[in-house]
Amino acid sequence: MDRLSIIKIGGKVVETPESLTAFLLEFNKISGNKILVHGGGRSATNIAAKLGIETKMVEGRRITDEAMLDVVVMVYAGLVNKRIVAGLQALDCNAAGFSGADLDLIRAKKRPVQEIDYGFVGDIEEVNTKELRLLLNENIVPVIAPLTHNGQGLLLNTNADTIASALAVELSNIFNVNLIFCFEKKGVLSDPENEESIIFDLTYNSFLEYKQDGVVNAGMIPKLDNGFNAIKNGVKEVLITNAENIATGRGTRLFMGDRF
Amino acid sequence: MDRLSIIKIGGKVVETPESLTAFLLEFNKISGNKILVHGGGRSATNIAAKLGIETKMVEGRRITDEAMLDVVVMVYAGLVNKRIVAGLQALDCNAAGFSGADLDLIRAKKRPVQEIDYGFVGDIEEVNTKELRLLLNENIVPVIAPLTHNGQGLLLNTNADTIASALAVELSNIFNVNLIFCFEKKGVLSDPENEESIIFDLTYNSFLEYKQDGVVNAGMIPKLDNGFNAIKNGVKEVLITNAENIATGRGTRLFMGDRF
């Protein structure tokens, strides 16, 4: 099977032209098939504020009402996605940007209202990579914005980590997938005060223990849940690292270990 | 040669969910290969105003400074493009949205400053339809936002009529292209006060005469220039009509006539 790298970057990387350019140079070093999945949270918050729309977060998750949905569609699929695409084209990397509605790539259903009404947030139901594979075959680099659709005309806001993980699982049927979560730290840290305390090999077993002991911080947990979920479902490798190390492969690597 | 319909719609059609839905139902009736090119002018003006960015127009053309460029990228490639794509997917039409940067589709150069500084506006230099043809072959319907790029990381604002015409010319090498400019009127009118005074057959010769006599109004002239340019360069048919008639083919049809 051919190798495919799926790299997920947070919104912070795309916030300044400098950090975006630095990231894209590293991204461009990764050889072979690759897909970039991006967030865009902070830019959306800034634009929303300028438009007089209040950002409401519950446990780190954005509440997406109708006005906020318009903002995230504009910012994620518009501003952030096209800046990345134009930046990659400038490096002779033939990128093409998509939301989950394009090519019917990712169908989701609006999250049911339980204790919290998240609004127009989508939980993934179906990933359809037919045309994506065709484009990968032509050396196109898909750049995916964190939006899905319900198949009935409604766009939905969906977490970028979850999208990266879902794409990785779906494509692991035909590729050896290397899933990389790129954020500000060099990996998962055993001591949040010490940037060099990287846990290089993280088994599911130790993750559960770290989680219980509070070593792994709250913001990291959904990312690791997504990562281990990918490993459990056929993704070959999962790496958590920063922009400087996406091509070197240095960072925290997830393993199922002997628990499974 | 296979037939390909390229339909250009103005920003007004996408302004309300009702007019967009009505248009998409008509668009969905067109059989065979098709591409949709959209504008989005008025939505950009509204969003810019909310963001406190002033819209400057000179002779009907938007001056695109840096702040306005961000707005048009957000609105055209984000909000408008993705609403159309999600709307088409709801009709089981497998749409995919692109800007001119995606797939390196349309390269442009920033318009040189002469009497007027248009800002970040792009004049088309190169159209590259390789991957677009691949997607058409898979029954994908490309939806193109009126943005181009300069190949060096810069996105540029480009007139949607011009993009539709340039794509039509480029693709006329391998398709019998039918280019449709869809706007609010039923066609080019010989009497602007009478909505039914449609000029059904318009030759280049009569266009020049109408233009001289002031029969054809100013806003219509660039559209007709684009249309005749397409005909001169190999496009099979050019039709100017409203949303209700894109599938019926009723409206103003351009002909070179005996002048050429």
Instruction: Please name the fourth-level CATH homologous superfamily of the largest domain in chain A.
Output: Acetylglutamate kinase-like
Q: Work out the strand percent of chain A.
A: 25-35%
Oligomer: homodimer
Give the tally of structural domains of chain A. 2
The main β sheet of chain A shows up as: 8 strands, mixed
Low-confidence blocks of residues of chain A: none
Our measurement of the CA-to-CA distance between the termini of chain A, rounded to an integer number of angstroms, reads 24 Å
- Helices of chain A, by number, come to 7
Secondary structure category of chain A: alpha/beta
The CATH architecture of the largest domain in chain A is 3-Layer(aba) Sandwich
Order of helices and strands of chain A: EHEHEEHEEEHEEEHEEHHEE
What is the spatial order of strands in the main beta sheet of chain A?
A: 5-8-2-1-11-13-14-12
Number of strands of chain A: 14
Radius of gyration of chain A: 18 Å
**Per CATH, what is the topology of the largest domain in chain A?**
Carbamate kinase
C-alpha geometry of chain A: globular
Write up this protein:
Two copies of one chain form a homodimer. With 260 residues, the first copy, chain A, is α/β, with parallel strands linked by helices. Chain A is built from seven helices and 14 strands. Chain A has helices spanning 17-29, 41-50, 66-90, 130-137, 160-171, 204-213, 221-232, and strands spanning 2-9, 33-38, 56-58, 61-63, 95-98, 106-110, 122-127, 141-144, 147-149, 155-157, 175-183, 201-203, 237-242, 252-255. The longest helix of chain A is centred in the first third of the chain and has 25 residues, at 66-90. The radius of gyration of chain A is 18 Å and the shape is globular. The two termini of chain A are 24 Å apart. The mean pLDDT of chain A is 93. At the A-B interface, helix 3, strand 5 and helix 4 of A face helix 3, strand 5 and helix 4 of B.
